[in-house]
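User: Some background: our group keeps a shared notebook of sequences we're curious about, and every so often someone picks one and asks for a predicted structure to add to the entry. Today it's my turn. The entry only has the sequence so far, pasted here. Could you supply the structure so I can complete it?
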Amino acid sequence: MLCKKACKRISSRGIMYIRSFIFEIMQFKSLIILTGLSMFAFTACNGQKKSEKSATMKTQIDTVSYSLGVNIGTNLKSQGFADVNLATMLKAMEDVMGSKTLAITEEDANMHIQNYFTTLMEKKSGEAKKKGAEFLAANGKKAGITTTASGLQYEVLKMGDGAKPVATDKVTVHYHGTLIDGTVFDSSVERGQPATFPLNGVITGWTEALQLMPVGSKFRIFLPSELAYGERGAGQMIGPHSTLIFEVELLSIDK
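Assistant: Of course. Here's the predicted structure to add to the notebook entry:
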């Protein structure tokens, strides 16, 4: 989690899922999937909810169809499609399954999806950047918080009396990482296993912060996105421009 390697953009994840979804549908051409997709019908074209109807599953095909709907709906929602027009989506799937002329070609469909995810990512990135800046501005005014020239903020929870590492050292630490809303995204403490790594091989904020800590110290560090994963984010939990909080305990310097 702490490495510098970039993770894929949300737009790429969305496109990959949609293409995978199309492949799944083609693989199940012989299935009558409309039973499964009927679970979407309680949402009107204008986004207003209708009464939910229970799906009837009398055969294996019914069960598989509903299962496809669960899988597709879950993944679409996780990719940011919570407000998708399900009736229009259902019509497109009926056209594909019935080999009818499509209102939008597959090539254009991919372009529209890419544009949607790009816009969505930019919106979420802007919101995250604003929230992070507001959080750090308020946090920096609190007693016990030190802000460095780079924008790194830290709070000393326990000051050790050992040596301080340099960027070329390998260190062993315990850490607990959260977003500013308290969501835990990574924790060696919860795993019960300290992490060892070269100090110059992790995110910039860690490289700076650990060099301020004598062995035996425990700091709470607050990293603006520029010192963490920036506009790329990392994995599914750390979005673009996310401000991160870590509690870090420096256990040893491993030469």
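Suggested note for the entry: The chain has a mean pLDDT of 82. The chain has two domains: 10-103, 125-254.
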